[in-house]
Specification:
Blueprint: H1 6-10, H2 20-47, H3 51-70, E1 72-73, H4 76-101, H5 110-119, H6 129-133, H7 140-159, E2 166-167, E3 172-173, E4 176-178, E5 187-189, H8 200-205, E6 216-223, H9 226-235, H10 238-245, H11 250-258, H12 262-273, H13 278-285, H14 289-302, H15 304-320, E7 322-324, E8 330-332, H16 341-375, E9 382-388, E10 391-397, H17 401-413, E11 424-431, E12 434-437, H18 442-464, E13 467-468, H19 469-477, H20 483-495, E14 499-500, E15 506-509
Antiparallel strand pairs: 1-3, 2-3, 4-5, 6-10, 6-11, 7-8, 9-10, 11-12, 13-15, 14-15
Helix pairs in contact: 3-16, 4-7, 9-15, 9-16, 11-12, 13-14, 14-15, 15-16, 16-17, 17-18, 18-19, 18-20
């Protein structure tokens, strides 16, 4: 018998709108099938050498569940004000466009807009964004239409959409996570809080409505150029490795080597990772295709090992049928041997993208787990809220910010050992749209070491009665704290009478 799908069961409604008797049968069957499949899939897990990836994902699942339950606090007042302001902007752009056209049309109708623009004397085949972008410098009306569309999307998707997701009992938005996209990345839906617009104005309006709970601060901790560092690690390109080891500005370095402006170098650096073609680069930089082709050639001349690594990665994947990330996660790419050229080229880009983006996701997931475990001792005083690719948004009691943030930064920076250092930056604020750079204090870090060690001793005591030095060292190492600092902290805590030794190298809290 074929199992019922979720859509068949709910009739495309939400689960909570489905009768419990109907949904209950589906849930029971779902659990039964899962249990029956487990031994079959577990054998495949071992055969594909994915046990470690599986164990990591189980831990990530627990962290994401906690984030979903916690949610993010939203200011309905800020959203309402933003909605009113943007609605006025929309009306203003609409008025300017219609005055230029000299007629009343529905600007949201592609066919009406196309006909009106053709009557206006602009020869175009459609009103898609890419088409309009090519003409925005030539016609004022095109620039106005593009801005109008941005405002409409901002208004309908976010300013009107977000309030519908606020849970009345908590005042918070509880997004849903999918932790296993094709490259291993985490996505967010209902609503998608990972794809909020980043323009300065949108940041103020949308991200600014995500606020800290009373008595808390929002803290954003972000990996610096994670994917470029992963590229340096895998390609072993000497110039990239040297730049990161010596703390150089990688975008300026590329600008100097390729002889292009820094802003263009930044786009080229990231474009190479995503497999951007000369056509795509030309469109992004608004330059001729031949010039974009020349940029890419000069990039590979400056960083030859990057080109060699990409070539090797694609060839290896073509032979084996899959690519592998830094954790051993595998992604099958059958289209690498497809007879259709465009499908084959797309798979080649996916091969490189998966290794880079998937490895960055592995590092972020490991960091997520380690941060969650380290912060358990603080309970509700530290709440993990939202992972946004290379960024982690958390909520911390205001009195603990200066103590907790340096520890989290240290954990994230040491989550994985690469051939180049991982670096993180932290910002603190009352809302996500207005954050200030965090400056750590070494004295406060030492105080936090004491708290972490006491929390670890308490945790081990619950299981074994006393905490042995080896167990303390093993647990504390997860926090990126050196043995020397642990020893100093233990001596200080013992001298203060906070802990004592029942036996040699065993510790118990007093």
């Amino acid at each position: 018998m074929e199992p019922a799908t979720f859509e068949d069961t709910t009739g495309k409604k939400k689960a909570q709108e489905t009768p419990i008797a109907v949904l209950g049968k589906y849930c029971c069957a779902d659990s039964d099938y899962t249990l029956r499949l487990f031994p079959i899939l577990e054998k495949r897990l071992e055969r594909l050498e994915l046990r470690e990836v599986y164990e990591l994902e189980l831990k990530v699942l627990k962290v994401l569940l906690g984030m979903e339950v916690t949610g993010v606090l939203i200011s309905e007042r800020k959203l309402r004000q933003a909605r009113e302001n943007v609605s006025l902007d929309v009306l203003d752009y609409q008025k300017q466009i219609l005055e230029l056209l000299g007629k009343e049309i529905n600007l949201n109708s592609p066919s009406q807009l196309l006909a009106a623009l053709q009557d206006f004397g602009i020869s175009i085949e459609n009103t898609q964004e890419d088409t309009l972008k090519q003409l925005k410098g030539k016609y004022k009306i095109i620039s106005l239409i593009l801005e109008y569309r941005k405002k409409i999307k901002l208004l309908n998707t976010y300013l009107k959409g977000l309030p519908r997701h606020i849970k009345p009992s908590t005042g918070r938005v509880h997004t849903s996570y999918n932790q296993l996209l094709t490259a291993g990345r985490i996505s967010s839906s209902s609503p998608n809080l990972q794809q909020l617009p980043k323009s300065k104005r949108a940041k103020e309006l949308i991200r600014g409505s995500l606020i800290a709970s009373p008595g808390y601060k929002l803290v954003s901790i972000d990996y610096s150029q994670m994917e470029l560092r992963v590229l340096a690690h895998f390609s072993q390109e000497p110039e990239l490795i040297r730049a990161y080891l010596e703390g150089e500005d990688i975008h300026q370095k590329t600008a100097d080597l390729v002889n292009i402006p820094r802003q263009q170098a930044k786009i080229v650096n990231f474009g190479i990772i995503y497999g951007m073609t000369p056509v795509g680069l030309a469109s992004t930089l608004e330059i001729p295709e031949e010039e974009a082709e020349d940029f890419i050639e000069r990039y590979f001349k400056a960083y030859p090992e990057v080109k060699a690594w990409k070539f090797k990665t694609v060839n290896k994947a073509r032979k084996e049928g899959f690519v592998e990330t830094i954790s051993g996660r595998k992604r099958a790419l059958p289209r690498l041997n497809d007879s259709t050229p465009w499908k084959r080229r797309a798979a080649e880009r996916e091969a490189v993208n998966t290794v880079i983006q998937g490895s960055a996701a592995d590092i972020m997931k490991k960091a997520l787990v380690q941060v969650a475990e380290a912060m358990e001792i603080f309970g509700e005083k530290v709440r993990l809220l939202l992972p946004v690719h290379d960024e982690l948004l958390i909520e911390v009691k205001e009195s603990l910010v200066s103590e907790v943030v340096p520890i989290i930064m240290k954990i994230m920076a040491s989550a994985w050992r690469l051939k180049v250092p991982l670096e993180v930056e932290a910002e603190v604020g009352d809302n996500w749209g207005d954050m200030k750079k965090f400056q750590p204090s070494s004295a406060i870090v030492q105080i936090e070491v004491y708290k972490i060690i006491l929390g670890i001793i308490r945790k081990i005591e619950k299981q074994y009665g006393t905490a042995k030095l080896g167990e303390i060292l093993a647990e504390t190492a997860k926090h990126g704290i050196s043995k020397k600092r642990i020893s100093i902290a233990l001596e200080q805590l013992r001298a203060e009478g906070t802990i004592y030794e029942p036996k040699i190298e065993e510790f118990r809290r007093v």
